[in-house]
Amino acid sequence: MIAACAALASCVPEARPSGTANAQPGPRPTATAAVPAVVPVMPPAVVSMPVPPPTPRAIRPAPQALIAAVEEAVRGFDGLAGAAVRAVDDGWTVEANGRRPMPQQSVSKLWVALTLMEQRDQGRVRLDDPITITRGDLTLFHQPIAYLVAKNGAYTTTVGDLLNRALTQSDNTANDRLLTLVGGPGAVRDFIANKRLGEIRFGPGERLLQAGTAGLTWRQEYSLGGFSAARAKLDPAVRKAALDRYVDNPPDGAAPLAIADALARLARGELLSESSTRIMLDTMGRTVTGRARLRAAMPVGWKLAHKTGTGQDLGGRNAGFNDVGLLTAPDGRRYAIAVMIGDTRASTTARQQLIQTVARAVTLYGPTSPATAGGLGIAAN
């Protein structure tokens, strides 16, 4: 069974606030290419590892050296940032500004994927189901699958292929097509609420989210390359006001602490079936985005399953620069991590270094708990 799940995953082309310590198959919906009407408004607010049963919480206290390192890294960053680390097996939590909701951007693809995999567990969808992408499904920004759609006017693939593209490549069109399949933003919000994932919001999908963040009303022609040009024509004051609104109250906002807890629960097998958990983590382990973020801090022998997120820039200001995931030490101990930058004028290198610093601290102090923090030795990357 395990081999079959792993094979399936490889065939396809990512709360409770920390501090708290198979349904019968039904009819499956047809994966059609229908696209819901777009309403131009913003709502309010590869790793193979065992999936053991839930483990006791708070087996040991959090390492003091790790606490100091994470707090120092976040405090010294030039901008709004937060970080959280949850020891999956030992139960402790370390956080710095971890309860403040930050823009998720493509980190939110995790919740679409988890909603999809829960529907798989319920027998409502299969990863080998065919699904078609049309020009009307195209979104904006990073969408490698758009080339395949443009080539013939439509592209038919499988649900599993879209899952792989959404998580490993952060393909916006693949993600939004899956969002339509699972029932739209409401279905994802229901999953988050039913699983009690805590301070995690889910926005309206890539098109409306990005248009609203820029100060635009979405038009489908933007998916063919006109978005950046339309955004550039806006009054700078309009763009700044829109970005300010987004940062102040992000419709896709989530607290790093809630994300870390959700990832820990996923790793413990508390959110999905064993096979769906394995597929999720294996797919996240093949992520190719963010090579200079969490992955750049992984020593030899450590494994990483993760999801990145990157927001729009305006005049050197960035809203949303993140990496969240599951780190597995050579001894098998696991650490859920979320490092999120909500608003900053710091350089891309400085943002990457913050994420690397927190991750490197986990690898140094999480398993061994040395007495002092220092000498993280993070190279610019």
User: Considering the protein shown, what is the CATH homologous superfamily of one domain?
Assistant: DD-peptidase/beta-lactamase superfamily
Number of helices: 13
Q: What is the terminal separation in angstroms? A: 40 Å
Q: What is the average per-residue confidence, as pLDDT, rounded to a whole number? A: 85
Oligomer: single chain
Largest sheet, spatial ordering of strands: 2-1-11-10-7
Radius of gyration: 20 Å
SSE order, one letter for each helix or strand: HHEEEHEHEHHHHHHEHHEEEEEH
Q: What is the CATH topology of one domain?
A: Beta-lactamase
Q: From the 3D coordinates, which CATH architecture of one domain would you assign?
A: 3-Layer(aba) Sandwich
SS-based class? alpha+beta
Helix amount:
25-40%
Count of DSSP strands: 11
Q: Strand content of the residues, in percent? A: 15-25%
The shape is globular
Low-confidence stretches: 1-56, 369-381
CATH class of one domain: Alpha Beta
Give the biggest sheet.
5 strands, antiparallel
GO biological process, one term: beta-lactam antibiotic catabolic process
Pfam family, one: Beta-lactamase2
Family: Belongs to the class-A beta-lactamase family.
EC number: 3.5.2.6
